[in-house]
Amino acid sequence: MCGRLALFSDPVALARHFGLAEVPTLAPRWNVAPRQRLCIVRHDETRDAPLAEEVEWGLLPAWADPAKPGPRPINARSESAASKPMFRDAWRRRRCLVPADGWYEWTEGAGGRDPWFFTLPDGTPLGLAGLWAAWRGPDGALVESAAILTRVADPGLAEIHDRMPALVDPADYAAWLDPAQPGESLILDPGLARQVRARRVSRRVNSASHEGPDLLETPVEPAT
């Protein structure tokens, strides 16, 4: 799964990497959590280039009951999303990329949970495969939201967690965002996942209220 991520790259660099129509206005984040604002890159029919916008993290499909919208999944299994009622419409028409400098997973350590940060060694931003939806409330208010697609973890990362975000190779960004293109082959190939590395970081990440670059500091091991 993917339940926490970071996005702190310079917006100009992000615009260049994702081929955006505009430079996004984004505050750097080191601890983005579910139900918070999540940056996505999606196709814009009025332009020749995609746009980056912020939506809620936790998919709320257009058909959800206005009286009781129900669950808000933050992840969707890439192996089955195309056939699941919750995700299939978004899979067909509303695929997106979720820019991230990395994501977090946890293992059990002495005295608590140890967070690990997954990222590319050279610091290149990642494009996580995602789905987005637009829901309109009874008062007419529009809620746009997204979920991150996951897949079986690459063997080099599976010791920490058996699932990981489905990554899209930069060469495939345009194809992934194009609903006319098949998507499965673009995200189930391990490819880019083999380059990802994980390192242990500060336990301050464990609280979603904590923010700042110090969250990525390597913990100091106690003297023995």
Keywords:
single chain; 4 helices; hypothetical protein yedk fold; seven-stranded mixed beta sheet; 224 residues
Descriptive overview:
- The chain is mainly beta.
- The protein has a single domain (5-206), classed as hypothetical protein yedk fold (Alpha-Beta Complex), CATH 3.90.1680.
- It is 10% helix and 33% strand.
- It has helices at 11-18, 88-93, 173-177, 184-187; strands at residues 5-7, 29-32, 37-42, 51-57, 75-77, 95-100, 102-109, 112-119, 126-136, 142-152, 163-165, 197-200.
- The strands form 2 sheets. Strands 3, 4, 5, 6, 9, 10 and 11 form a 7-stranded mixed β-sheet that branches. A 5-stranded antiparallel β-sheet has the order 2-1-7-8-12, with no helix packed on it.
- A hairpin with a 5-residue loop joins strand 9 and strand 10.
- It is globular.
- The mean pLDDT is 92.
Range of strand content: 25-35%
- Structural class of the secondary elements? mainly beta
The beta-strand count equals 12
Weakly predicted, low-confidence segments: none
SSE series: EHEEEEHEEEEEEHHE
> Architecture in CATH?
Alpha-Beta Complex
Mean pLDDT across all amino acids: 92
Radius of gyration: 17 Å
Helix content: 10-25%
Count of structural domains? 1
Taking the alpha carbons of the first and last residues, their distance comes to: 35 Å
**Global morphology:** globular
CATH superfamily: SOS response associated peptidase-like
Tally of alpha and pi helices: 4
**Major sheet characteristics:** 7 strands, mixed
**What is the highest CATH level, the class?**
Alpha Beta
